[in-house]
Amino acid sequence: MSMVGLEVNGRLVSKDVPDNMLLAEFLRDSLGLTGTHVGCDTTQCGCCIVLVDGVSVKSCTVLVANAKDSRVVTVEGLSDGVHLHPIQEAFIEHHALQCGFCTSGMMMSAVDLINRHARVLTPEEVRSEMEGNLCRCTGYHNIVKAIVAASEKMHVR
Ligand code: FES
Ligand code: FES
Fold first, then answer.
1. Cα–chain-centroid distance for residue 110?
2. What is the pLDDT of residue 88?
3. Which domains does the chain possess?
């Protein structure tokens, strides 16, 4: 066990955790942030993606000890509590979710992608860069449309 301190969705958290605890387990089981999903445990599906210091990471592959002192944002932290984040608005407007299991990971990945490019994205760029996120409902067409639209909302306003 070791004491780990980090910021999660703007809140400072400090807990004693097992050395082998994954960040995904910590978020879901210790903090109750169950919007981060675990779909494979083998680093393939991307359902567990969160932002660590602004970079999208698969939280099923990171030890919480390695996220010590970092700033983590999960899907629960996207909205400011009053307004939805542009990526959330775009997913609703473009019907980019079906069962919703992949949605949090898709949105967190997309936020990193849009922030990195800081301009309107093309559908081809989105398809290429989102290859680490799988949707078992296969709703890729609308997901791509939503991410392009969010890049417009975030960089053309
Ligand atoms: S649960 Fe992490 S990539 Fe699938
Ligand atoms: S919406 Fe069901 S897995 Fe993507």
1. 8
2. 98
3. 2-76 (3.10.20.30), 86-156 (1.10.150.120)
For residue 96, what is the enclosing H or E element? none
pLDDT tens figures, 116-131: 998 999 999 999 999 9
Q: Which one of the ligands is nearest to 107 CA?
A: 2
50 Cα: distance to centroid of ligand 2 (angstroms): 17
Torsion of CA 140, 132, 88, 115, to 10 degrees: -120
CA-nearest residue for atom 4, ligand 2, is: 135
Chain centroid to Cα 28, Å, comes to: 13
β 11-17/49-52 pair status: unpaired
Give the number of C-alpha atoms closer than 13 A to the C-alpha of residue 10, restricted to the C-beta side: 7
31-41 residue pLDDT tens: 999 999 999 98
